[in-house]
Amino acid sequence: MSTTALSQAVLSQAALSQAALSQAEPTEVTSAAAASLLAVQNLAVSYRSQGAQTRVVHDVSFRIEPGEVVAVVGESGSGKSTTAHAIIGLLAGNGQIDHGAILLNGTDISGWSDKRLAAVRGAQIGLVPQDPTSSLNPVKTIGAQVGEVLRIHRRGPRAGIRHRVIDLLARVGLPDPELRARQYPHQLSGGMRQRVLIAIAIALEPQLIIADEPTSALDVTVQRHILDLLDGLRAEFGTAILFVTHDLGVAASRSSRIVVMQGGRIQEQGATADVLANPQSDYTKRLLANAPSLAPAGFREARAPIYLRDAGAVAAENPSAIVVSNLVKEFGHRRTDAFRAVDDVSFSVRRGTTHALVGESGSGKTTTARMIVRFEQPTSGRVEVDGQDVAPLRGEALRQLRRRIQLVYQNPFGSLDPRQSVAEIVAEPLRNFALADRRGRAARTAELVDRVALPAAVLERKPRELSGGQRQRVAIARALAVDPRVIVLDEAVSALDVTVQAQILDLLGQLQSDLDLTYLFISHDLSVVRQISHSVSVMSRGRIVETGSTEQVFLRPQHDYTRELLAAVPAPAPVPAPAPAPARIGG
Amino acid sequence: MTRYLTGRIGQAVLVLWAAFTVTFVLLQALPGDSIMIKFENPELGLSPAQILEVRARYGIDEPAVLQYIHTLMGFLAGDFGYSIETGTPVLQRLAEGLPETAKLAAGGFLLAVVLAVTIAFVSSYTRFAWIRGVLLAVPSLFISIPTFWLGILLIQVFSFQLRLVPVIGGTEAQSLILPVLTLAVPISAPLAQVLCRSLDAVYTQPFVAVAQAKGASRQWILWRHVARNALVPTLTVAGLTFGELIAGSVITETVFGRNGIGRLTEQAVTAQDIPVMQAIVVLAAFVFVSVNLIVDLLYPVLDPRLAAKGRVAV
What we know:
Chain A is an alpha/beta fold. Chain A has a six-stranded mixed beta sheet, sandwiched between helices. In chain A, helix 8 (190-202) runs parallel beside helix 9 (220-237) and helix 16 (422-432) runs parallel beside helix 18. Helix content of chain B is 81%, strand content 0%. Chain B starts with a helix and ends with a helix. Chain B is mainly alpha-helical and 314 residues long. Chain A binds chain B through residues 88, 90, 114-115, 117-123, 125-127, 129-131, 134-140, 148-149, 152-153, 184, 186-187, 197, 200, and chain B through 205-207, 209-218, 220, 224-225, 228-229, 302-305, 308.
């Protein structure tokens, strides 16, 4: 292939000039490292902010052989993305490599300037970024953005570029590539955009692709297709892939070797099957235990509520906390272009249990939840909360509804006022409903913060001083302040790392049994749903396709869509017979 | 698209009508009577009957509602009435001033854009933090300078001290240099500020990192990715600064003694020449509304996402 030959030539020339210039710090280059496609040796990266240097990557070393898939796994703040970005010199402006070597085909590129790295980027190393929605320039056509990488590296005649672009778009499985090339990013779905970004990454057939959380922003079925695509390309072109992910399930199913990072250090690395079957470091063990998709099965059974034991009480009480019947929501002004976001949805939730609404983005699950808490007015249908029809409520009656039903949002960063202290945030509902005087509020706030297992010291802090998990605890404490009967959790744990996620799920379970709360749990993450919910409704395109107990839906799915969803959950590849263990760095 | 266009033009017409009406009411409510001021002057020696006749000719003896209807009909037919001060048609006075002001405003706006783009792009492209720091301070300085003071200062320095530009006489281009500069400086400030900020915001977008990962150079990224994305918010501000352009031309033309619409405004206000004022306000509103209509129509050209939204929203 001429392009590969050319890129080799460029690189070897670069290697020569590097060797000529090499008065820079001598790094010991072992012959094994020189033979690897990529070898990261003792890499240390730090960020400078307000005059202080903070080291975020410490002495990281690993290797990638040609055609190999290596997964770097870790939680946010583990330094995994920083490491990946350091490899192609894309650290943020205040980041710098303190020491260490990054050997690409035996050449240390760690000290190279942007100008020199430009020849490597795209040609030798491709990047598939994290968030496909914002990773394409909104004002340029897809074709122009794919063609750009060919134009920058001046590969092939100008006239041939259009043709190459369409070939590439077809190669990554985009239907109707000629049309796509003329379209703008906003006209494509998230999955299609990620395919475009992959097309850009493979355009020059690089030897290495760095995939930085390539699927974390995508729905689970789309995620599987994208991962399959990357696998296929690897098999076809022999491209090595460096997979950066927080999802142990994805890492387990797609990589041949795993590097586990925590706090900027490598905790453990080795063959994927070995690490999963026989983790050496405590951190890896904990990560494995917390990963929901890998957790051993076990479904929550709704325990018989107390009132069921007393026949008289049963007759007097409504066993359902939420009853939704024939709920419809249409958007759009005219009848002709009205879009049915929620289409004839009915389900009920028993008091004291958790009901999950599962579906991919655009399935209408969030709109349904917003109608139940009455942030949206239903077009038609009935919503009963605690026995009262809330659909026609307005004004003061609607305000009073919020005392019985509360919402916890997905984003723990955006849902807390950055200028308020935690005490003010938690006390605000008490003030709004005039539930206590100043002293009573302070006492109740302290009690609530204690309830969500936060130290009293956080009361005076601002949200930005808290971690994501702590913020979500604050949001839960705020929701609990008015003593609601029902809490709607809209993707409430989706933005959190697995270990934090497990803690929040524990907390939610604890609160539910202590306070007899009913949860409506909105999520796209089936593994989390499996852990927390008693019953499940699966939504697709505004309709509920299947409802039942969690056990029934997960073990005996009736609808094709449910089966497809379940099949798409990344599961570890079947573990092969233990091979002689390769060298492993324990933590 | 046609529906969107008719809707926007309808809105623009409504705004013009509102501007006309509000001005009319305000001018009616003004104390004093310009005709009385002018014609009751004993030196003219007009009899009360003659004054009444003059009043009738200007149509001010009618009830306010009838006056309103007559004036509005006149405006719709392109007849803006007669100037009280000179007795000539208002249209003629506007036509005399308009080319002068158009030259000044166009020059001022162009120079403002050039200044703003230079400040923003150089500050975002430079690798030297101190250059960036200095450039980012410039807009705040520019916006704090009063126009009249800047005009006088420029005449002092360039005409009297350095004798580079003649104060009186000189070619037309020469006579434009200082007024254009005076007008451009305060207008460039908000443009530069918004452009700087949007450039910074666009640079943090993930697609910039993707472009870097493709191997694009800094110039490539600035021109082909960042610039066009940063333009949309700047365009909004550019449309709004046209109001400032109109206000600025009053002062600039007065300071530099140019006979444009700005000067005419100043004279009309001093003489309480109501028909002229009415026409100027409507003219200014017309320019402002048209410019912002053009700006609105430019959005979808610059950002295809807005084209989609425009179609859905209307």
